[in-house]
Amino acid sequence: xxxxxxxxxxxxxxxxxxxxxxxxxxxxxxxxxxxxxxxxxxxxxxxxxxxxxxxxxxxxxxxxxxxxxxxxxxxxxxxxxxxxxxxxxxxxxxxxxxxxxxxxxxxxxxxxxxxxxxxxxxxxxxxxxxxxxxxxxxxxxxxxxxxxxxxxxxxxxxxxxxxxxxxxxxxxxxxxxxxxxxxxxxxxxxxxxxxxxxxxxxxxxxxxxxxxxxxxxxxxxxxxxxxxxxxxxxxxxxxxxxxxxxxxxxxxxxx
Length: 255
Prior knowledge:
Elements: H1 30-43, H2 51-57, H3 66-81, E1 85-87, E2 96-104, E3 115-122, E4 125-133, H4 141-165, E5 171-178, H5 181-188, H6 200-211, E6 215-219, H7 236-245, E7 248-250
Parallel strand pairs: 2-5, 5-6
Antiparallel strand pairs: 1-7, 2-3, 3-4
């Protein structure tokens, strides 16, 4: 298919079109599908807004269907309309680690595994991000959120060590934003509730770092949670709003 004349779209994935393993007829050229996914993976190094869509499509590389290929064309049409888009790094910013942690519970319709994601900023610059489907099924949304929180905590610790090794002065403590009130409450509570025993290791990881003032755990509204871009497909309006918060600029857009 020739995409040079195709119409651009606002988002890389349509929210109302969930994808399954076998939800349509097999695509007649699976090699082409795999090649496209492999090439698009490189774009996620500079385009965090594509991370969710591409990691979602790569799950179907073994046996892609026509519906999966059509979802792929949506990503390509979005790239066509945002060809000059990329991360912007300001030359003046307070050097402080700011993290955002989020989850999407039981999002996979085939396995009911969840997606956990996080973003790491150094001042106003986005320097690290990840969106990954978990390997096991979680029994509650709280478990998924706390798992994502523990992973983000370890990343903050690693970035802190890295800055210290390079002898770079930075503002302490780091800030970690989480929109789950239960996770924040248990992270700050010395007593573990009965329902947290099966994730006690993650609880200790977060609480220990929190008590040592590695970071402050702060609330954030769902509308302001920028890492939503990495956990689920969004409508055009919230997608564009959160994109601006990631300091992603389009070189071809008017100033």
